[in-house]
Write a structure and sequence with these properties.
The complex is a heterodimer.
Chain A: H1 3-14, H2 25-30, H3 35-64, H4 73-95, H5 97-103, H6 114-126, H7 130-160, H8 170-184, H9 190-194
Helix pairs in contact in A: 1-7, 3-4, 3-6, 3-7, 4-5, 4-6, 6-7, 7-8
Chain B: H1 2-28, H2 35-43, H3 56-66, H4 79-90, E1 100-104, H5 125-130, H6 147-151, E2 157-160, E3 163-166, H7 176-180, E4 186-190, E5 195-197, H8 205-211, H9 221-225, E6 231-234, E7 237-240, H10 250-254, E8 260-262, H11 267-278
Antiparallel strand pairs in B: 1-4, 2-3, 5-8, 6-7
The chains are: A mainly alpha, B alpha+beta.
């Protein structure tokens, strides 16, 4: 159990999915304009990452590996995640309409988001156990949320300022994203130091 | 041979299984969408302004369908045309929508009053209001940054001489600006009422007169002039009762500071606009 906090902190701060691995950049730039939509999107991502890890891991271990088909993981995972998210959306719509209304817009958006697919594939690559994979997926979602919430604050500050016309909109956003990403490099080695 | 068949079977199997589950799920858990609600929602303008008192057009449409005591004429931006459409869909009796529009209860233009500071912060009324009650000499003055202009989706508000003015012909009475004004200077009134008091100051007459030449000094001349008992001075400020006011304009004539204003629109002008919005 000792490695769980290491995995968690590592995936949130050091190997942040958005800022260090550059996965999920599309929602990172698209949904970070406002704080409340950034939080809504991140909660949906955490949710989807967790359930897709919970489902794809057994499929890989007990269906693909015994038949020597581990090369099929990408296409099988895409298929499973897409179906799963659709199913979750239908269930939410029926039983928890309030949650559906707040998450609903974002759920279809992340059906085949690369960060969701990425976390399931990386769990396999890293050789994590089932529980470690779940922690890793949860941490990846939290890291996504951290990046989005931080960046939505940065963007709101940018929009308040008078910037040259050529940099307005996406150019200034991309520059700011790179600066935030560089700042996260400062965390490298921190986790190893804490949990030595 | 097996190395080709197994992967095909497994991927196809997962696909078919997922498809089957989704089909079953969507069949058994399909949320029954009320067709009438969809139609009503389409009839509404979709401004989500909240003038009807519900949280957006979707909520209003759902309430209309589920509860027949909810009136169909609450949508002010849509007006009577939308009310007619809704009552036709739901099969309930039609009541014309009461026209409404917004008024600005401040007349403190640059020649009447002054700013007491040179505000360099974020250029918006709400930011300025947080800083020592705003830049106006009067604490209930139009701050002139135009938060309401920005909020208005009809382009009906514009700034004249530092005070927001509303084009009655363009205003649909949605009340988005009312929520935005940090000084609560904007009010929604019935279209029939064309006389209004252009001041919100509740300071006493002497102080109001010292800081603004266009403020209500609570002299009470309008009260005496009114033959319908429709205007009264309450808390140092004249107020018009929209139900009693006949828009005769007597109060406006006697007001020494000239803040009782009239924005009567000629009948022909109004008809043209109404025809336009119906199309």
């Amino acid at each position: 159990m000792k490695e769980m906090p290491v995995i968690l902190m590592n995936v949130i701060l050091v190997d942040n999915f958005v800022l260090a691995k550059f996965l999920g950049i599309c929602p990172f730039l698209g949904v970070s304009k406002k704080l409340d939509s950034a939080v809504g999107m991140s909660v949906a991502v955490i949710f989807v990452m967790l359930i897709s890890t919970a489902v794809t891991y057994p499929i890989y271990m007990y269906l693909l590996v015994p038949h020597g088909l581990s090369y099929l993981q990408t296409i099988a995972f895409i298929l499973v995640i897409a179906a799963l998210v659709q199913l979750v959306e239908i269930i939410l719509k029926e039983y928890v309409p309030v949650l559906h209304r707040s998450l609903g817009v974002y759920l279809p958006l992340i059906t085949t988001n690369c960060s969701v697919l990425g976390v399931t594939l990386l769990n396999i690559d890293e050789g994590y156990t089932y529980s470690q994979s779940l922690v890793n997926a949860f941490g990846a979602g939290l890291g996504f949320m951290l990046a989005l919430v931080l960046f939505s604050g940065v963007r709101q500050r940018i929009e308040r300022n008078d910037i040259p016309a050529a940099f307005k909109g996406i150019p200034s956003t991309l520059i700011a994203a790179s600066v935030v990403s560089v700042s996260f490099m400062g965390f490298s080695g921190v986790v190893d130091g804490i949990f030595k | 041979m097996e190395q080709y068949v197994t992967p095909i079977l497994i991927v196809a199997g997962i696909g078919i299984l997922a498809g089957a589950i989704l089909t079953v799920a969507s069949k058994f858990m399909a949320v029954k969408v009320n067709e009438a609600a969809v139609k009503v929602r389409e009839a509404l303008p979709g401004a989500n302004c909240g003038a009807c008192g519900f949280a957006g057009c979707d909520d209003y449409a759902a309430s209309l369908v589920n509860d027949h005591t909810v009136k169909a004429n609450l949508c002010t931006p849509g007006g009577s045309a939308v009310a007619l459409e809704i009552s036709r869909i739901l099969g309930i009796s039609f009541e014309a929508a009461e026209g409404k529009y917004a008024i600005v209860k401040c007349s403190g233009t640059f020649d009447k009053t002054n700013y007491i500071m040179d505000f360099r912060g974020i250029q918006s009324c709400s930011a300025n209001k947080m800083f020592y009650r705003g830049r106006g000499a009067c604490s209930r003055a139009c701050l002139g940054f135009g938060d309401c202009v920005e909020a208005c989706e009809c382009g009906a508000i514009f700034m004249v001489n530092g005070v927001a003015r509303i084009d009655k012909l363009k205003c649909v009475g949605c009340g988005v600006c009312v929520k935005r004004c940090p000084n609560h200077l904007i009010e929604i009134v019935p279209s029939e009422l064309s006389t209004y008091v252009g001041c919100s100051s509740q300071d006493d007459g002497a102080k109001t007169h010292r800081i603004c030449k266009a403020g209500c000094i609570a002299c009470g001349k309008c009260e005496e002039a009114c033959r319908f008992d429709a205007i009264h001075v309450k808390g140092n400020l004249a107020e018009i009762d929209p139900e009693k006011c006949k828009n005769c304009g007597m109060c406006a004539k006697v007001c020494p500071t000239g803040i009782i204003q009239s924005n009567r629109i000629k009948k022909s002008q109004l008809r043209r606009v109404n025809n336009f919005s119906r199309k």
